[in-house]
Amino acid sequence: MSVALHGNLRDFGIGEVFQLIGQQQKTGMLAVDGEAGCLRIAFDGGSVVWAESAGAYEGAALGDMLVRVGLIRPESRARFEAGVAGSEQSLGDLVVESGEISSDVVREITDLVTMDTIFALLRWRSGSFHFTSQPIFHDRGRSDLLPAEQILMDGLRMVDEWRTLDPVATSSDGVFRRTGSFDAYRETHAGDPPERLAEAERLFLLIDGRLQVRRAIDLSRLGDFEGARLLSRFRKLGVIEPLSPEELARARERTQVRPRPAMLRLDPGRLLVALPYVALALVVWLAVRPASAPENPLGAGPMARADAAHDALRLRQSALAYRYARGNWPSRASDLDELRGAGRMAGMEADSYYFRRRHDGVVVLAPEH
After folding, report:
1. pLDDT beyond 80 at 247
2. Same domain, 20 and 118
3. Which of 166, 218, 262, 320 qualifies as a FRET site for 295, CA 20 to 30 Å off?
């Protein structure tokens, strides 16, 4: 194992480092130390495998991000960290083995950490770096890796655009509130793919006048740059606005951690008495549930089915945003009115959709189902 490249960012920019590693198809670890800490980027044949802020162990940044996006709780992360210390497995492997999160989602969050880490690195202007040639073990196919030169081109474009974004959108402690409808964004970006519009709407629904920019972007899983760019676009369209300093101070007071109320103590004897009635109610509910399924008010045509499916997706996105913002799943579709701010979504009656809360989420079906 030998150090192949080292230097100072003032003399040799990070862009030149990436370019050299990419052109020579190097495999190894690039470590960059600066005032904000240490960043590590793993390369295989000149392409990026992963990148992260260096922590107490490999994958610490992934554990932090899993908590930030709401996929695991801090106590679960501590349990996985203890497992990492006692084995040769990574935190990501332990999370997948636990069954709490799928391997696809862990890879998605790993890519999010990589994207944010490289974007942060490209904005550094000082620090030292060294590249060590060494094997990099991973299970990714060649097509899943990110060529260093392509990352550099995209990253530098993002850095240039970052300077033009709304200052509040690039400030982690800023807070926005909604002042309009997402339909304004949908109309001006009608050519965007449906998945991009769904991502934008997910972030828009998280803007509630209470969540800080950092928290809203984390929960949207869009990354620092894309999240700030969307917020800037919303602001330009006039559908969101930042809170004033006085309102921001009050919002921060509301977000202070408050003690949770003590759980109610249940009398086991009363529970035994109530069980037969609960069972009877469950049987009755199962018996009448098919009859309570909503009728189809939209017709059976292809366009009507497409519209209904799209609105069902919007309700599911709203329910997910509600959980992120409130900490629990909504019990019924009408609970989402407060989150949307402007009442029901234009052109749809949410209560006509099949909406049922489950222990692990909600089921939303279009009327034709």
Report:
1. yes
2. yes
3. 320
